[in-house]
Amino acid sequence: MDLIIKGGRVVDPANGLDGVADVLILDGRIARVERGLEPPEGTPAVEAAGKVVAPGFIDLHVHLREPGEEYKETVATGTRAAAAGGFTAVVAMANTLPVNDTRAVTDYILAQARADGVVRVYPVGAVSKGLRGEELAELGELAEAGCVAYSDDGQPVMDSALLRRALEYAQAFAKPIISHAEDAHLAADGVMHEGFVSTDLGLRGIPAAAEEVMVARDIALAELTGTPIHIAHVSTAGAVRLIRDAKGRGVPVTAEVTPHHLLLTDEAVRGFDPNTKMKPPLRGKRDVEALREALADGTLDAIATDHAPHALADKEVEYDLAAFGIVGLETAVPLGLTHLVREGVLDLPAFIARLTVGPARILDLPLGTLSPGAPGDVTVLDLDRELVIDPSRFYSRSRNTPFGGWRCVGAPWMTIVGGRVVMWERVIKGGTR
Ligand SMILES: [Zn+2]
After folding, report:
1. What is 3-53+375-428's CATH number, 3.10.20.580, 3.40.190.10, 1.20.1250.20, 2.30.40.10?
2. Cα torsion through 89, 212, 286, 86, rounded to 10
3. Among 68, 77, 310, 385, which residue carries the largest CB count within 10 Å?
4. Are 259 and 331 in contact (CB under 8 A)?
């Protein structure tokens, strides 16, 4: 596919680029980024003056729910939600039904992505069979089938010896392990952050230490084995301190943070909205401040949504019983542009870096850059677009978000995958459905 995107402000952190230029895509790959390009005759053109043109955004942490829970999300609906939200690639976690612990499941997900997907899908294979944390999955087979990392996400790997062995095996396949850092015994049956608010509300708490002891353990094992470990959804100031220190010592550790952990505190739970219930839970004000600072200084490498669709029936119950998790694909970019960039938490190039080159480097994906030869994946932003988040308009099959009604300024305007426009002004194009 050929395309020229003309006259936009091109922000490509991987190449230290920020200025007006044209982006030429030929045969689905980036050909040139320059001012005043003359494309081959007949090349379709997009006028992007006044818009921001960036490498395609990558979401490192998505639950597509297929196979097994298609009433919550499918590869078709999840990738449409991604395209609508400005993402050109999603990394799909292994906690499907059945679990992605064999080649057959990976093959199935990739086949669905080819048939029905509108953005790139990168599956993650399980660390342990059935996510039971007892026996290693067939890590080699999963890598061969196309998995880009291993994770039992949704569940912690509690057995440290098993995780050590997984890290040793993973090294042979040059794939990192993604850790859902939660001590299951400390978290127990907690439903929110343990602190003043949980005491006030009479809800069972999950202490910050439940995350921090596991982050410390994960860092120690990354150091022991030399295999990279990526900490998913960091939520506490203590975890940030541990990661900052480990990185300073050269330990191969990377980390991501979600928009909800950057924007909300446990105070949001006071209304008992089940859409404030997730793992890890919304933390305190000091934690949010530490996360924002760490995102800006690069201690946190990536913003990832932990898009976790749930049906109404799983959420519209009393707080104690509600499912954990919220959707994020269609809200992350408007929320980030509004509440992180406009409010000066980090500048636009840094924000874009945490959604492009940051995640690409963690998983060694050939994405996140507008370098010639890279896949022609581009996200175009309209920084002036005003909108109110309206869950009834989501492409996702699920609506579980605490951000309904939030006003934003700035949104994805166009999503381009391999030179093909898959979303323009919220309208999804292409795909077979
Ligand atoms: Zn998780």
Report:
1. 2.30.40.10
2. 0
3. 310
4. yes
CB 315 within 8 A of CB 327: no
Axis-axis angle for helices 208-225, 237-248 (nearest 10): 20
Query: Active-site residue among 152, 218, 306, 377?
Result: 306
Expressed in angstroms and rounded, the spacing between residue 144 Cα and the centre of ligand 1 is 24
Decide the pairing of beta strands 420-424 and 407-417: antiparallel
**pLDDT digits 0-9 by tens, 225-269:** 999 999 999 999 999 999 999 999 999 999 999 999 999 999 999
162, burial (CB in 10 Å: exposed 0-12, middle 13-18, buried 19+): middle
CATH architecture group of domain 56-362: Alpha-Beta Barrel (3.20)
Question: Residue 273 is which amino acid?
Answer: D
> Interhelix angle for 75-84 vs 103-116, to 10°?
60
Q: Is the alpha carbon torsion for 171, 172, 178, 181 positive or negative? A: negative
Distance of CA 213 to the CA centre of its chain: 23
Q: Which amino acid is at 75?
A: V
Cα(313) to centroid(ligand 1), Å: 21
pLDDT > 50? residue 78: yes
- What distance in angstroms lies between residue 154's CA and the mean position of ligand 1's atoms? 4
Is the pLDDT at 315 greater than 80? The verdict is: yes
Report the C-alpha dihedral over residues 112, 115, 118, 124, rounded to 10 degrees. 30
Which residue ranges make up each domain of the chain? 3-53+375-428, 56-362
Residue 371 C-alpha to ligand 1 middle, in angstroms? 32
To which residue do tokens 């200084």 refer? 297
Between the CA of residue 145 and those of 79, 89, 107, 138, what are the distances in Å? Answer: 20, 18, 7, 11
Q: Which of the 8 DSSP states describes residue 403?
A: T
SS3 425: coil
pTM for the structure as a whole: 0.97
- The residues facing 428 across adjacent strands are 423
What spacing in Å lies between the alpha carbon of 156 and ligand 1's midpoint?
Answer: 8
Whether 306 is catalytic: yes
Q: Of the candidates 352, 356, 327, 353, which has an alpha carbon nearest to the alpha carbon of residue 337?
A: 352
Distances (CA, A) of 84 to 118, 380, 402: 10, 11, 18
